[in-house]
Amino acid sequence: MSRQSHDGSAERGCRWFRSESRALALALAAMIALTAGTALLPVNCQAEEAAMATAATPLVAASAPTEPSIVTFDKISAGDTAWMLTSSALVLMMTVPGLALFYAGMVRKKNVLATLVQSFAITCLVTILWWLVGYSLAFTPGTPGTTRFIGSMGHSLLNGVVYLHDAGKLSVSHLGTTIPESVYAVFQMTFAIITPALICGSFAERMKFSAMLWFMGLWLILVYCPIAHWVWEPSGWLAQKGVLDFAGGTVVHINAGIAGLASALMLGKRQGLGRESMAPHNLTYTVIGASLLWVGWFGFNAGSAVAADGRAGMAFLATQMATGAAALAWMFTEWATHGKPSVLGIASGAVAGLVAVTPASGYVGPSAAVLIGLVAGVVCYFSATSVKKFFGYDDSLDAFGVHCIGGIVGALLTGALVSKEISGVDGSVVTQLWGVLTTLIYGFFMSMAILWVVDLLVGLRVSPDEEREGLDITQHGESIE
Questions:
Q1: pLDDT of residue 324
Q2: What CA–CA distance (Å, rounded) separates 293 from 300?
Q3: 142 closest CA partner among 225, 53, 57, 64
Q4: Helix axes 429-457, 255-267, angle to 10 degrees
Q5: % helix / strand / coil in the chain, to the nearest 5?
Q6: Measuring CA to CA, which residue among 235, 238, 175 is closest to residue 52?
Q7: Which helix (H) or strand (E) holds 163?
Q8: Could you report the per-residue pLDDT of 284-326, keeping only the tens digit for each?
């Protein structure tokens, strides 16, 4: 389905956009121009959002305010702030270097640098987009009539995220009332960074670098930000329905995984798949990357408590238990079916456990976490091997098989196993299923639409000759030799 050629009229219509660097520069300039006007005016985000926001009841912190506010320094918890700064650094480490190395070790030698730079470039791109509009769209109450579906533009360019030293005051988010809003914004930025980076595993070794940048930028604004608002902003419509997602099983993993499947289907299979060896180039990189992901995930899950408290401690413990259980479950399943436990298998199993426990981590105890890990290890193993082979799609590094399927397992088991004593909320498998299906449908079709547009603009896939030579040389003019 990828574009190899167009008829004359389509070629003429897209000729101006074929200058890819010019098109990318113009797109970024346009985004800045659209949002920069808000920075030139005095903005009182707190007053504006108080007038616009509708009443909302958070699922867990029922007493928390529903709009940003200005507080004095003495209202800020030093312990919570220190933990959230640490968590933000841990989650950023998950992408660079964690995910970058995890994926780079699994591709062929000729595509190692191209794979590494995808995670690095996405980190840079999302950082700027988050500042421009991403944080505002995802985590501020929307305008009347849109509150349940998308945030307002009140925090574009991070307007209103203030620090007034002389006045002894700073802003806090309604979702993190004991830490500066600047810390909460950067914590959520790290989630927004890793989510599109996960998608790269599905189209590894065949997408153009320029197309990847276009796709990730548009996907962040049109898919990630709305779904994050639906689930994590208390006024979001899925949050109002009671969908539980403590740290991103739906918002991050199902969302990224289904976009990965869309990418794999849109681009088609790698050349030579099934006829040529496509063994991982360097599993040492992959194990190091998986280890960094494991450690960084404690910031991902325990940090989502947005406090240094008992909820964070339980999420930390649940994360460790599920990861160990899933790694062993994958390893023993592979051992039983193929006769040997592979290094790649146990590393992949650990990631599957991390994914599956993410939505449940702040809602379940250690025993439930072990059960989630065991189920995820077995289900994701067959999804990444037998199911992929049966349907014939080329999910290169199993972004769909591990992240989407693992996220679904975790989301549904969260509804079944949630502990009210730990979480303070009730769970429902039916409600969780509603959240899963909504994310799958919206994420898949929006991703396909964005890919189609990017294909028209710059083309999605490298040429057959470029793919054979490798993306390191053809896309970046460099090699590891």
A1: 98
A2: 10
A3: 53
A4: 40
A5: 70, 5, 30
A6: 235
A7: strand 163-164
A8: 999 999 999 999 999 999 999 999 999 999 999 999 999 999 9
Rounded-to-integer distance, Cα 233 and Cα 229, Å: 5
State the CATH class of domain 78-476: mainly alpha
pLDDT (tens digit per residue) in 229-273: 999 999 999 999 999 999 999 999 999 999 999 999 999 999 999
Q: Are 257 and 411 in contact (CB under 8 A)?
A: no
Question: How far lies 440's CA from each of 122, 316, 375, 403, 435, in Å?
Answer: 23, 28, 21, 12, 9
Share of the chain above pLDDT 70, in %: 86
Q: What is the pLDDT of residues 75-86, one digit of tens each?
A: 999 999 999 999
Read off φ and ψ for residue 50, nearest 5 degrees.
-65, -35
* φ, ψ (nearest 5 deg) of residue 252: -95, -60
Burial class (CB in 10 A: 0-12, 13-18, 19+), 416: middle
Residues contacting residue 196 through CB under 8 Å, at least 6 positions apart = 122, 126, 216, 219, 220, 224, 256, 259
Please check whether residue 300 is in contact with residue 94, taking contact to mean a CB–CB distance below 8 angstroms: yes
Helices 225-232 & 181-199 angle (0-180, nearest 10):
130
Pairing of strands 69-72, 169-172: antiparallel
Q: Which amino acid is at 91?
A: V
Contacts of range 2-11, beta carbons closer than 8 Å, 24 or more positions apart:
2/266, 2/267, 2/268, 2/455, 2/459, 2/460, 2/461, 3/455, 3/456, 3/459, 3/460, 3/461, 4/463, 10/456
- Tokens in use for 291? 């280890």
Q: In this predicted structure, what is the pLDDT of residue 68?
A: 56
Q: Where are the domains of the chain?
A: 78-476
Tokens of 177: 């009332």
Q: What are the CA-CA distances from residue 363 to residues 23, 258, 420 (Å)?
A: 45, 25, 8
Structure tokens at 384: 């990444």
Closest by CA to 377, choosing from 320, 429, 341, 333, is 333
Per-residue DSSP letter, 54: P
